[in-house]
Amino acid sequence: MAAPGPARRRSPALALVGVLLPPVAWLCALGLSYLVQDFACTAYASAGHSPPATVIGAVVVGLDVVLLALAVSAGIMAWRVHRQARDTEPSSPLGFLGLLGLLLSVGFGAGIVLVAVNPLVLEVCA
Amino acid sequence: MTTTDQQPAPTAEERARFEEVWARPRGWRRALTSVQHKSVGTRYMVTAFVFFFVGGLQALLMRVQLAQPEQQVLSAQTYNELFTMHGTTMMFLFAVPFLEGLAAYLLPLMLGARDMPFARYNTFNYWCYLLAGIILYSSFLVGMVPDAGWFAYVPLSGPEFADKAMDIWLFGLALAELAAIGAAIEMIVVVLGMRAPGMSLDRMPIFAWTMLCVAGMIILAFVPLLVGSLLLELDRNVGTSFFETDRGGDPLLWQHLFWIFGHPEVYVMFLPGAAIISHVIPVHSRHRLVGYPFVVAAVVVTAIMSLGLWVHHMYTTGLPPVTLSFFTAASMSISVASGVQVVAWLATLWSGRPRLTVPMLFSLGFLFTFVAGGITGVMVASAPFDAQVHDTYFVVAHFHYVLIGGMLFPVLAGLFHWWPKFTGRMPSPRLGKVSFWLAFVGFHLTFFPMHLTGMWGMPRRVFTYDAGLGVGLLNLLSTIGAFVFATGLVLAAITLVGALRRGERSGPNPWGADTLEWAADSPPSAPNFARIPVVGSRAPLWDPPPDDPELDRMAAAFDHAPQNVRATPFTTVLSARPGTAAVQASPSIWPLLAAGGLALAAVGLLVESGWVVGLSVLLIVAGLVVWELQNERELGAGEAKEPVGGEYLVEAPGPRSPGWWGATMAAVVLVVAVSTVAFSMLFLQVNAPVWPDGATLGTPWLSAGTGLALLVAIAASWWGSRQGPLEHDATPVARTAHLAAGATTATAGTVALALAVAQWPAGGLDHTAHAYDSGVLMLVGTLALATVLGLGITVSALVARLTHTRDVRPRIMLQNAAVLWTGVLVVWAVAWVATDLLPTVVV
Ligand code: HEM
Ligand SMILES: [Cu+2]
């Protein structure tokens, strides 16, 4: 076995990020959408003001788009790790982790989209 | 067997000494002191099944009452008590503990290890669970049976409406949760660190992947419930006001905390069930599981998404539609993930040559029932339909389809599948098949009609119904079905127990299965594997062994070895390359003492006796101290020998030994707990109509002092953990340095504790005045508790220093202390944010 080059030493970390980032992004998307929407609307209501629904909606969707971009880029990165591992060391678990990262990115990415469409089609502070 | 290394084959004398070290205790000692994973796992499973039959009996009583309209077999009050105890028993005393027991039994075998990582702690958890069950059921003896339903909604469970029965329920629950959290830590460490050499992550059995995810869910979901039950207990007995609207509390907080636990709980039951199926179907179809990476991804997605889904249980509580729709979206995604698993099983069946064995029958019964339950689940997940059938029998039908289809049928499949491994005997296939058909037909006969009674408006949790509703016949069918179902289950139990005596001998691998547990004897010997297997693929028993000298060297080093202490290989997380030797615990009674002390504390609080509580504290402390002394003695024996096979250290710093993982997980649990309290306060602050204007704890100096003392504790223990050589044969040089570091840490920790506690009187708050004050009390208490744990591990490090001559073990213990103190520092930071920062920055 050749001495591990810098690229190979980095890829376990990359693979791990590829696996962990999509779920974190989804949790943030759900949690923040809920927190921003619910807390903002409630806070305005209990202070007796009418909430700026469009602004709140835009903030929520904007957040979700950023998180979606994160999840997707994690997936692309994971795919790269998968390809590289498959070509250079087929017996290492990195190939599998890369594939797992890609699948998770697809799954959680779809989850984020499903969350983000809601403020677009429903009234935000009803 | 010829190996390339110079390790000579073990001699007869070495073999005998190896057996001696692993020998099981005999007679009464066996019941009280055995800590081995198979004995603990068996006790878990047997106890859980006893509770299952008790819960089933309660269900039958309810069905008798409901067989005809307007019957008076049971009073309304008894009915309330029965459904509460039935739900509580099934969820907390049967389903989760059974699966923990199955995991405790199977994981080490599947992974090629000799025991669970912290075998005594594992036993401690079992005792906690058993005592929790006894406490809950003692309510029948004292005639105060809980009746607020298995989710105990406030205010029904609050101080005004519920008597002592509720306290019994809460204490029993808390103890059971504590056990589950401990079991989760065990599962994480065994899966990440104790896999056979060569079993990289991508070669791990699906059951191990699943239990890893499930353990993560347990930590994130059960801790909030534990916190929630503490808050409710405080409200009930100390006069705090977390759930009382007049003083800034909110009953909805309980619902949130309960369902943050309750929803994932369903998946904590379903995912292991699905994992059992992922083992049974391939073996009984003689084909590898199709789409392994997809199944792993689906499990991860399901586990994580389930954590975000609790709100759908609160559809009818007046939350705004957008909030609800976020969670409906998440429910939809999760059903897709379950669908992926179903497709993988169908594809495996399709590509293999399925045999209609009893485990296979139960698997097919599962598939059918679970898919049906999934469909009604999608219906309930849509908010408008839910509003229609909410709190009717439709919901009762749905969740029994999911729970029994998703958990009970797989468990029965698993029992028939692994019974030959557990006992060495084959259960009768004929009786097994009869019991399956009785259970399957009985189940659907019981629960299918409930969909209809629900849609026709029969409410749940009501002890009788009007003849005019026109659901009498359907209910009669349900009752008949329940008895058929029960007959099937009793017959299954008879079949299994009967096989203990009369079953055919099975040999190690009667099904021709692929995973490592089938390489061990049936039933497995005490150390499971005298020679540790090496792994080169996902199906180690179907594929030729790997050709990898490094792995073989480790296997040879552990061949009937070590012989002076129990130990198993500890391997790297990603690739399971050989690492170190993890020492495993020998029999001990001290975990029982500590758990008994905890249960006694609960009893003392229930009967409000200071003496009993004081005695229990003594018991707990004594139990823990002797336990720790025993640990150190054993590790000393491990270190006294050369590294195992001349190569593998007995423990090493950092993630190379189990202790570091344990300390890290403990820190995580603490942080989750304090975050739960902080979020609860934020929730109350945003929702409360009255919140003290700009209220803060306002003790900046005490708070800063606490943080500073914690920093000193971290620094001192960290510094100590870097003193002295690691090599096994090096002369120890760091005794004084370790003692100084330990003493400094202990002093700093004590100062931190004193300052943290002093915040409460100094802040001049009154916990009965307002929810904010109550929250502050809870946060200060959490910080104090975390600090006490930090002090505990620091004292253990000092004990390690005093009992060992080498420097390695004290170094490791000081490092573990540093890890835990870091967790305490985070707790401190979160507590400060919640007491002083949030009140000023949030409107
Ligand atoms: C042995 C067959 C079973 C039968 C005949 C049965 C029957 C029932 C009945 C009649 C109720 C009360 C419905 C009401 O009035 O609201 C109920 C509630 C419940 N059951 Fe079962 N059940 C069985 C097994 C299980 C299992 C295996 C589990 C879980 C693993 C379970 C979990 C629950 C829960 C959580 C409740 C709700 C309790 C509450 O409302 O607080 N049941 N069951
Ligand atoms: Cu749910």
UniProtKB/TrEMBL annotation, chain A:
Residues spanning the membrane: 12-35, 55-82, 94-117
Keywords, comma-separated and alphabetical: Membrane, Transmembrane, Transmembrane helix
Top-rank taxon, per record: Bacteria
Name by which UniProt lists this protein: Uncharacterized protein
From TrEMBL, chain B:
Cellular compartments annotated: Cell membrane
Pfam family, one: COX1
Domain Cytochrome oxidase subunit I profile: 22-536
Keywords: Cell membrane, Copper, Electron transport, Heme, Iron, Membrane, Metal-binding, Respiratory chain, Translocase, Transmembrane, Transmembrane helix, Transport
Membrane-spanning intervals of the chain: 44-62, 82-107, 127-148, 168-194, 206-232, 252-277, 289-312, 324-349, 361-381, 393-416, 436-456, 476-500, 587-605, 611-629, 660-681, 701-719, 739-762, 774-800, 812-834
The organism's place on the tree of life at top rank: Bacteria
SUPFAM superfamilies: Cytochrome c oxidase subunit I-like (SSF81442)
Reaction(s) the record says it catalyses: 4 Fe(II)-[cytochrome c] + O2 + 8 H(+)(in) = 4 Fe(III)-[cytochrome c] + 2 H2O + 4 H(+)(out)
Membrane topology: Multi-pass membrane protein
PROSITE patterns linked to this entry: COX1, COX1_CUB
EC number: 7.1.1.9
Enzyme class, spelled out: translocase
Pathway(s) where this gene product acts: Energy metabolism; oxidative phosphorylation
InterPro entries given in the database record: Cyt_c_oxase-like_su1_dom (IPR023616), Cyt_c_oxase-like_su1_sf (IPR036927), Cyt_C_Oxase_1 (IPR000883), Cyt_c_Oxase_su1_BS (IPR023615), Cyt_c_oxidase_su1_bac (IPR014241)
Protein family according to the UniProt entry: Belongs to the heme-copper respiratory oxidase family.
Protein name: cytochrome-c oxidase
Source organism: Promicromonospora iranensis
